[in-house]
């Protein structure tokens, strides 16, 4: 090979790669609006993106898996934690996590109420980007889903069984958002939500207590009410509720079929 | 050193060394935060120290590249630099930009975009400084009327680096589009045009150190840069996994990223065969260590550690974990930090006075401690990352609880980082140990070792 041929090799390789790359870039631009729901990109969300950048969030957290690897990935955070929870968390992270226990803590970003709702809107928009289904299974902020679950089994709808309890258990791991993203069924393992270990037994005690103001008369009704109206009874703790409103998402009554709620209740009733 | 104006390089290298030291201070500070609790949580939390750590890296490596170019171009084009004054003004503006950025990050003045945190006014300064630099270099070449492939590749790499910074100046409303173009700057820098710069500097060093035939070296330089671009340009796709771009980027990323180690291996073989064919005739064997070491560490850090997690079905689980930090440290150090350190080691006997060409024992300690320390750091991040992937991503343990289980790896990280930092401190001390040569001394030195014909370098040292 001569020097001239070497130069020709360099020029041809570079031109081919660059041409293909630029061609695919044009095609990607054609597809971005659909993949990222650009029609839903409101000024509030764009301001939320500025909040995200101005506070240098990306140098600790990851978003779509990109960032600092020092704090949890936030791609699907709004599907795991409702707006009330995220709002309260952003107002004062130290109420939710202990630096002594976890050895790291998010400094208070000192955001205004408007900035908080903007950045949450932004994160929610990011969470709905079509990104080839990543992460392959939910990335959880804290706690564990290992005890009492099928380790390594991805969330799935129970297609194998018609048993309501089996279907309920599958929903527990998959219903949007998955219950086990916040609730463990291991005794004493409180995640973002309280543990559901012994739920059926505790339900009877809660109904009988004077603090209970809901309408349920039986443990079954109480579990159903907790799913459809999370704020009917508030488990004590600043990390679970604020202003008489539970941090648990309240979309289940609308997003689940009545029969799915029945299955979920049937499953949760087995936690004694 | 044949040309007076080459001494500009000393001041670029001096600034690079200061920023390198500062980068490690912030690196160690950042690493210590993995152990926690953090007493500086409310003044200098992780996000700030990490941004400063990575930005200082980019700034000092680019300072080193520019210094190296000011050293290489006069020799290759056989001419003094067009404007020495412009070279110094450029250095001052560049340093002020870097220092302002660091201080700004401390007080929350940031664009908050990973690696491109520089606020908009500072980005403009970067562009202006790059233009000054390119003008000065191109005018030198134009006035000399002579250029070589080696310097052509080097200068073209720097020019492309400046052009690829331009997408970073634009604000995008769509976060996915913003990610898409962020990698045009960062990826096409580090796996494209910076490798071109590395290739140019490597060719220069190999021609000087081994006395290998220039025609042969430059022919293969074209081939290597061709391979780098063929794999690297479409290899950008491995940053487009899971971020909201069309699906076809996944197989493209997998295939072309798999080719990237081939290009890097080609670079290492290029260095090895040059040395084997022409022999280690040059007395500066410390510079030989750094040059060959750089190519070997590039194959390891950029090539193998990158390939380890670049296949889409693997990356699905490793994406956004400490595995990426493993690759990042190995790649940047091997390919870029070591290339600059090789250039400094080669030029130092010419740029400073009272220094033996073959290097001192401090120099070798600095080399081996850095190489071993960085190897240990990549292992620490790698083992931590593997633990994280299994516990957090596969078993489903919470993020914070997983991090607590990785403490032992963070201890290992800090231990190996301390070895590395000691090596780096020795290198920096060795750099500043003797004074730069005065202009009079440069004028009186008629024969420098690098100008000796191949194979006769030893006899020229005494001259």
TrEMBL record, chain A:
Superkingdom of origin: Bacteria
Keyword ATP-binding: no
Entry keyword set: Electron transport, Heme, Iron, Membrane, Metal-binding, Transmembrane, Transmembrane helix, Transport
Annotated GO MF terms: electron transfer activity; heme binding; metal ion binding
Domain called Cytochrome c: residue spans: 43-127, 163-272
Stored Pfam families: Cytochrom_C (PF00034)
Coiled coil: none
PROSITE patterns xref list: CYTC (PS51007)
Hydrolase as UniProt keyword: no
Transmembrane segments: 7-26
Protein name: Nitric oxide reductase, NorC subunit apoprotein
From TrEMBL, chain B:
GO molecular function: cytochrome-c oxidase activity; heme binding
Alphabetical UniProt keywords: Membrane, Transmembrane, Transmembrane helix
Tree of life domain: Bacteria
Alphabetical GO biological process terms: aerobic respiration; electron transport coupled proton transport; respiratory electron transport chain
The name this protein goes by in its record: Nitric oxide reductase, NorB subunit apoprotein
Entry-linked Pfam families: COX1 (PF00115)
Transmembrane domains' residue ranges: 9-31, 51-73, 85-108, 120-138, 147-166, 186-207, 219-242, 248-274, 286-311, 331-352, 364-390, 410-432
Coiled-coil intervals, chain numbering: none
GO cellular component, one term: membrane
